[in-house]
Every structure is written in structure tokens, then in C-alpha cells.
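Recap from last week: sequence in, structure out.
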Amino acid sequence: MPRKIREYPEEGEFVVATVKTVHPYGAFLTLDEYPGKEGFMHISEVAPTWVRNIRDYLKEGQKIVAKVIRVDPEKGHIDLSLKRVNQQQRKAKIQEYKRAQKAENLLKMAAEKIGKDFETAWREVWVPLEEKYGEVYAAFENAAQNGIEALKGLVSDEWLEALKPIVEAYVEIPKVTIDAEFEITVPKPNGVEIIKEALIRARDRANEEKDIEVKFTYQGAPRYRIDVTAPDYYKAEEVLQDIAEEILRVIKEAGGEATLIRKEKRIKKVKKRGS
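Predicted C-alpha cells:
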């Protein structure tokens, strides 16, 4: 079970918790990521509306995502809330927890490979990587994308050698895709050819960069869709802006008009080559 390197959670943090006991006035929960720590959730923090029967919301053994609203390390008290967690926050926390589970499984594989127990692995690898990256799986993603040497100086060469084939085989490289639409018109007999040439030129130039993929899709006159996939959001934005400036320049020189319509960013995962 993934655990944090801190002894206590921080106020405002979202945690995965398991309901231990339920009472008419509230419930006690164990914190999955903080071994030996329990939190209390008052009935007033269970739902945004009046709760007649707390068991309609919480049952023993149930896993939930809760928000830490108060922490008193001296008394060992941790107060939790369920009603202050929205759907997006719950989804993000569950994703973080699953990533931690993946990281733990991969680290166990590496530990078994060199004959060390997980407590040693946690101390020698998990702690320094979490301190540096905030989460261990993010460190593994960086190693998958930039080579295991990216972790050099944080863990020993023995661990790097053990982790290298595991990271290469099992860790997915994060990619960000942003999409947008162009409205392009060129009022000339060969307007379509001018537009097509401008899009192809911009696409090919962008695709020359490492880890960048650009695709155009005809949506129906005068709309053209562009998808830019890059290692991170900032690089994707930079490429999109370069492409937009090039297209707008070419179309304007041809006597046409072009407008960029922004859409949303999307996250996808790309398997490491050879996995």
C-alpha cells in the first residue's frame, strides 16, 4: 500500500481513507497513505445537506477520498471531510493513488531483482524520489522519457541498473495533446491549393522537432483542425503558436483570412518503445 514520507498529512490535502467504524455522530477512518494514523469525520462533514442516517453515506470497509480540514500532531487528531471533495478532486486523487501503486509495484520488482526488501527500497529510492519529484511515478516517467541517468545522484548506481529495464518496459511516457481549429479562406481560384500548401508546410516543419507530432484534419470549409502532441503542455503551446503564426502569415500574403479557435488540452500516454 503506497505511503507518504511525511508522518502526518497537511491541512487541505486530499487523502485515501478506509472507514473503520461508523457511529451516529461521525466515523473513524484509517489513512491508507499514513500507516498507523486515523482521522475522524463528523456527521456534519459527510454531505452538503442534512444527514439523517450516516450509514446511507459511509459503511465499514469502504474506501473514500477525503479532505483534511484540521491536523493536531501533538494530540494526534486529524479531522476529515467528505462533503468538501468534488468529483474532479476525487478523480485526481484516485489517479494519484493508482500511480503510487504502480510505482510501488515497479520498485518491488527492482528490489527483488537485487535481493533487497521493500523497506530498504523505500528508504533508499522512494524517499529521495518523492522529495525531489513530489511523487515517485513522476520520477519514473522522467526516466522513461530522458533515460535512467535522469535519476543519477538521487539513488545509487545499483538501483539505477535494476530500475533501467523495468522503467523502459513498463513506464508510459506522458504526452500532452492540444487541439484547435483554423477558419481559413482564400478568395482565389487556387485558394484550396494555397491553404493545403500552407498547412503541409507548417506541419512538416513542426514534425522535424523531436517528440513533436502535428496532424491536420479537414473539418469542412472553411474549418481545419490541428492536433499538436508534445512532451508537455508548454512545448505543445509553443509549437501551436509557431504554426499559427506561419499559417496566418502565408494566408495573409495570399490575400486570404485565417482565424485560430482554441480548444482544450488532453493528456495521453505513449508506451516506451520496445515495451
